[in-house]
Amino acid sequence: MEYPRPQLQRPEWLSLNGPWRFTFDDDGRYGVPSDIEAWPLTIEVPFAPEASASGIGDTGFHKVCWYQRDFEFRPERGKKVLLHFGAVDYLAHVWINDMLVARHRGGFTPFSADIGHLLSPDGQQRVTVRVEDDPEDLEKPRGKQDWRPEPHAIWYYRTTGIWQTVWLEQVPETYVRRIRWSPHLERWEIGFEAFILGPIADELEVQVRLLSEGDLLVEDRYRVIRGEVHRRIALSDPGIDDFRNDLLWSPEHPRLIDAEVKLMKGGEVIDSITSYTALRSAKVHRDRFLLNGRLYPLKLVLDQGYWPDTLMTPPSSEAARRDVELAKAMGFNGVRKHQKLEDPRYLYWADRLGLVVWAEMPSAFRFTTRAVKRLMREWTEAIERDYSHPCVIVWVPFNESWGVPDLTATQAHRDAVHAFYHLTKTLDPERPVIGNDGWESSATDIIGIHDYDNDPHTLRERYGPQVKPDELFDRRRPGGRILTLDGYPHRGQPIILTEFGGVAYVNPADESHRGTWGYFRHDNLEQFEKLVLELIDVARGTAMFSGFCYTQFADTFQEANGLLYPDRTPKIPLDRIAEAVRGQVEEGALHWEST
């Protein structure tokens, strides 16, 4: 799955990844491509210049940089040509043959431009990109990108410029611009929406075919009205649960429904795409999370989504697939993608192989009007991009009050969390939303608790059956923060331990790991294993929790608190982790003495 947009695929596309001319412009001297006299560097797109895989590996402060590439392309007569960017951090200007065609603000979401009218008839084309990305700007969504010259604590190297695929596709004059899938399990229906761009004729129709493992489920045609189609596709209800379950999507049974969507004009196919969806529901009921209407304990691992040589960019689609496979091999049924909107190819493999994903907005770290506007625009784009992925089951606009640091004292900060919560529920009424994960909860469907106490015995006493939720919220202060804001007591929502663990193993023989960071460090691998597995066992076995999320999937730069090393080599045998996650460890095998 190298196709950069897995849920709307066309056969005709061209990747523009590979070597591009490149230069830094620290003084901002250049305004248009013709100003640049020399291109001293070559960069391998889509890797950021800070990444060693880019061929540059410059982690210094650079506010502006430029890209340029020549390519050969002759469009077909009567076709439009769309130039797509998966993600460019942060403000991008794009020229085709020295004509400005696009401007986009936001480092994690895609954008595109119609460039066919600007292409040279001789087939020789040139694309130029200017990127502004102030490394010290704390008002933009940046997630884990450090604002200091070198990574410190839990912050990592910056990602400047292009970091996801650049590609071309040809489309007809009238084409399917966007589709959206909305499963409605209670009615055994799948909502389908199509948005058509271009001249709209009266006889336009959309044909939809849904197939499950080759078996035809649905074949319908719908008239295009004012450039749109909105339909609920009713499936034949198999009746008994055994047959129903065979069609439902879950991590244990990731059944996808393949889709063929054709735009028809007078009976002739003018645009054809392939897609997929799934029948599943993700909801909360009282104090529990439900998947497909059944209690479903969430067993998650926090995943930063970084690789040593490529930073936020997956080295390949196979690397993204391998991360999904490793999470499942460790017994987890999901990941909490932390402070990053993940590459759609990762979401494709999570859909295909079966892994639930919590989608979290990368934070800005100042509270200003401009920061809120930037967050809201990019969060809206993120929901639109990932809405149809079956694996995405929870939206998280804020984490640990980052960007809204004065929730207990400032009404505007509380209003921001409430605004994002209700905006998210408006754009997607079908998924749970956590307004602010970790502490200081108010508007939320799930209360997430972050607790990095490294003593399993203490955790067991703190959240055990002898503790009532009301007592917990009255007295517990993880990170020195209250769990719920005054006026927003626990209303019976599910409680999930959304961060815990964070135990760093530092190999004494590896000098490169000296001075690494973690909530608690251990130099003895055997004791590290016992502690990690008992912490997981406590979280899994605590009845108060509807799930847990262990920190973290893999070591990430100076953070050595991963279950895997940065190259994804396990620190602990995968089957041992899986036994603890699934609750299959023999009694007494995890005994650990606190020191």
From TrEMBL:
Gene Ontology MF, one: hydrolase activity, hydrolyzing O-glycosyl compounds
Keyword list, A-Z: Hydrolase
Annotated Glycoside hydrolase family 2 immunoglobulin-like beta-sandwich domain residues: 242-280
Glycoside hydrolase family 2 catalytic domain boundaries: 320-573
Family: Belongs to the glycosyl hydrolase 2 family.
One Pfam family this sequence matches: Glyco_hydro_2_N2
TM helices/strands, residue ranges: none
Domain of life: Bacteria
InterPro entries per the UniProt record, alphabetical: Beta-gal/glucu_dom_sf, Beta-mannosidase-like_N2, Galactose-bd-like_sf, GH, GH2_Domain-Containing, Glyco_hydro_2_cat, Ig-like_GH2
The protein's name: Beta-galactosidase
Annotated GO biological process: carbohydrate metabolic process
Domain (Beta-mannosidase-like galactose-binding): residue spans on this chain: 65-146
